[in-house]
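Summary of Year 1 activities. Much of the first year was spent building the evaluation harness for sequence design. The harness presents a backbone, in tokenized form, and records the residue chosen at every position. We chose the following record to illustrate the format because it has been used consistently in internal testing since the harness was completed.
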């Protein structure tokens, strides 16, 4: 009994270490672990009211808007590790779906892995899901050339694609905001104002109360849509959003529960996709 408990503890420490001292090539194992939370994922899909029979745009849109309304962007906590006799504090940590739900939020990779896990459970035969990563120079420290990294979802539908970027509040060419209607008193009588906020900056309880009172809703730019397109159009629309603030941005890897592939440039990634590199790289768990 003691030996069995020790082996379980040893396995948990091994998994935790990989999620704190994460190497990109370890992502398939972590993604696979996330998608095995079947009962929790099925419960969430029931709440979101989607199934495999829904159209891809409907599945992507419902999962995306559920995350915006029910979760919050939360930076990782610091984790202390003993390394070579000293204590090292590391902030980056990958949370599994149940941990994201318990915290009511997470950072970009946490929200992306949750999205991946949900979409994977309802994907059709002609659909596949991947994590896709960008790197560039931090918009807040360009002078010192500090690296910037971001993870989202690449959703392949036949020969076309969508980008689902929860932390970026972006899906294909549509960006969302939380529109809040404010009543304001003035000497000449009552007035009103409308403000737009990133929905992931607001606590889920507050968003729920504001919507129930009819003073807030999710909105997006007129003419934008949730749709699939060629890999070039899909990718350049997404990168174009980040290029406004992040210099030298490019695709650096793509991964799912069975494979990982790194790239030296966005063009190298496009060549990989157009040469059929994603074909047969996907196996449903």
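For this record, the design step produced the sequence shown next.
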């Amino acid at each position: 009994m003691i030996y069995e408990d020790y082996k379980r503890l040893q396995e948990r420490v091994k998994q935790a270490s990989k999620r704190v001292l994460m190497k990109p090539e370890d992502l398939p194992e972590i993604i696979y672990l996330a998608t095995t939370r079947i009962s929790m994922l099925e419960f969430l899909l029931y709440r979101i009211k989607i199934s495999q029979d829904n159209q891809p745009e409907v599945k992507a849109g419902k999962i995306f808007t559920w995350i915006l309304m029910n979760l919050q962007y939360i930076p990782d906590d610091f984790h202390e590790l003993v390394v070579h006799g000293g204590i090292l504090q590391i902030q980056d940590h990958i949370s599994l779906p149940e941990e994201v739900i318990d915290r009511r939020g997470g950072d970009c990779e946490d929200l992306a892995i949750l999205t991946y896990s949900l979409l994977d459970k309802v994907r059709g035969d002609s659909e596949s899901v991947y994590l896709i990563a960008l790197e560039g120079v931090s918009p807040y420290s360009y002078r010192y050339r500090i690296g910037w990294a971001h993870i989202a979802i690449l959703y392949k539908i036949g020969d076309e694609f969508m980008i689902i970027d929860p932390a970026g509040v972006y899906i294909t060419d549509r960006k969302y905001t939380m529109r809040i209607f404010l009543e304001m008193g003035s000497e000449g009588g009552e007035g009103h104002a409308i403000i737009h906020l990133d929905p992931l900056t607001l606590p889920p309880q507050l968003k729920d109360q504001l919507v129930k009172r009819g003073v807030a809703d999710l909105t997006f730019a007129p003419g934008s849509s949730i749709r699939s397109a060629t890999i070039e159009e899909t990718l350049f629309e997404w990168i174009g959003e980040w290029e406004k603030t992040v210099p030298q941005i490019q695709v650096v890897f793509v991964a799912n529960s069975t494979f990982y592939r790194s790239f030296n440039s966005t063009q190298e990634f496009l060549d990989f996709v157009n040469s059929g590199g994603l074909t047969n790289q996907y196996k449903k768990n």
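DSSP finds nine helices and 13 strands in the chain. Quantitative recovery figures across the full test set are reported in Table 2.
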